[in-house]
Amino acid sequence: MPPDQTPAPRTDVTFASGDAQCAAWLYLPAGYSPAAPGPIIVMAHGLGGVREERLDAFADRFSAASYACLVFDYRYFGASGGEPRQLLDVASQRADWKAAVSYARSLPEIDPDRVVVWGTSFSSGHTIVTAADDKRIVAAMAQCPFTDGLASGLTMSPLVSAKVTARAVRDVIASRLGKGPVMIPTYGAPGSTALMTSPDAAAGVQALIPEGASYPKDVAARIALQIPREFPGRKAKDVTCPLHVVICERDTVAPPKPTQKHVAKAPNAEIKLYDAGHFDIYVGDWFERNVTEQLDFLTRTVPLA
């Protein structure tokens, strides 16, 4: 099936996480029933992303191959609830992952022992941690993964890093005073005060947004103080299920060398190296290669029958 034709049928659902409801799309291919439950792929986006930004392209392909999918927005983002809006917090997002997996397992059409976790960029760190902590996860997939916060932070120039840190400190102070968040763009031109400022960041993010659509592209700046202290790649050694990792060798957002070092320690890792940039694998020919190899991984590790 071509990547952007005939969207697969899906249903809008919600599940509780913390003090809010997370919105999700549930894809249930024909043949799934309580009498014949099947596997499901739980999916969420990266840094400040929402489902509409090309996650449906992946889910359409997985669903066409008869895999169920649960594609969700984190609390505070997209169609999900929670205040303040655009609050990007590692602990709450990982709690959302646990809630999403639990919800998927509760569905009568789903085999609770055949849940796959799929992440991209920032969310790939969450999938690695989720798979490491939950030994019932049957397989995990991580593309252009965020694995090493210090390495990602060092991609910024010292001046940009200083400006981002100053804004993050202002946001923390504002939150302690009971004020609204101080925001920061998730992406911007090189040298701007934003979380991603690589030369390909602006065009890369914009290529994910559907034509005519518009989504908030800023987050509470306090996340900039969390990122350098996060090393989800260190948990890769504890992921015992099959782990499919796509590493972009020209990635200027999630540096590839630290990722290779981390995921090589996973006992069942399958590592794919692409001569591509961070955003290339969502669209065009790189998307085709990427999703085709992901489907191959699924059919080998999580067969439908």
From TrEMBL:
<dbReference type="InterPro" id="IPR050261">
    <property type="entry name" value="FrsA_esterase"/>
</dbReference>
<dbReference type="Pfam" id="PF12697">
    <property type="entry name" value="Abhydrolase_6"/>
</dbReference>
<dbReference type="GO" id="GO:0052689">
    <property type="term" value="F:carboxylic ester hydrolase activity"/>
</dbReference>
<comment type="similarity">
    <text>Belongs to the AB hydrolase superfamily. FUS2 hydrolase family.</text>
</comment>
<dbReference type="InterPro" id="IPR029058">
    <property type="entry name" value="AB_hydrolase_fold"/>
</dbReference>
<keyword id="KW-0378">Hydrolase</keyword>
<feature type="domain" description="AB hydrolase-1">
    <location>
        <begin position="41"/>
        <end position="279"/>
    </location>
</feature>
<dbReference type="InterPro" id="IPR000073">
    <property type="entry name" value="AB_hydrolase_1"/>
</dbReference>
<protein>
    <recommendedName>
        <fullName>AB hydrolase-1 domain-containing protein</fullName>
    </recommendedName>
</protein>
